[in-house]
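Fold these two proteins, one after the other.
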Amino acid sequence: MDAADKPTSAAGRKALDDPRIHRYYVRLTSEQNERFLRMYEQSGMKNKADFICHRIFG
């Protein structure tokens, strides 16, 4: 059986149409971090990445 004849499996995660491949790193002071966490908690969002994108891009 050749590699071309092998049946393919649909195992693993489905590829996204527009994957998030760009990443940024930010350093915050303790005061800035407390403010950020307060804003995040008040937003009620489930994860910080979506919260940041929403704050930047509306």
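Now the second one:
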Amino acid sequence: MKREKTEYGYIDYRKKRQFLMTFLMVLIGIAIYFLGRALNKGESSNVFTVAAILMVLPGAKYFVNFIVFFPYSTPQRAQHEELKALLGNRGSLYSDLVITSPEKVMNLDFLWIEEGCVLGVLGKDGQELAYIQQYLSQNVRNWASDCRVKILGSYQELLKELTEQMKRSEKEKTEDLKKAKEYIRSLIV
């Protein structure tokens, strides 16, 4: 089943898809090469050999994407279900985020966006929390100036922060919120 960016299960889906597409490009390249040899009486010097070699380009694209996603995994389903139950229809819950910046590839398990607030939790241990916090804060403010961004180090911290947010009154979504959502989605690989 196809998964879209920000949907639960996206990282695992994307890793499988990129690996299969890499394998498919290799098989197509090999098939083209041997077809060319068969049609040209065993000679390798033909246009089919060139076409087979060119299959490396899309294969490399898929393989690089696989390498980017390889260290990360989809968070636990129980955590996702718990967050959905806690949040209900309030705000937007994103899952399985792999975000790129010029310097780093970052992973967030969950990101919740509501009026004036973006809350996230690190996906993989060992990431620089301060860098991710600063990068997202700076760039989200370019799109939605009133948005507060807070990235947390653990799932338990996220639950605590979300529980506090749920106590506050619900506000109507504005244009800034839509822009913040669009920007976050544009960052995701």
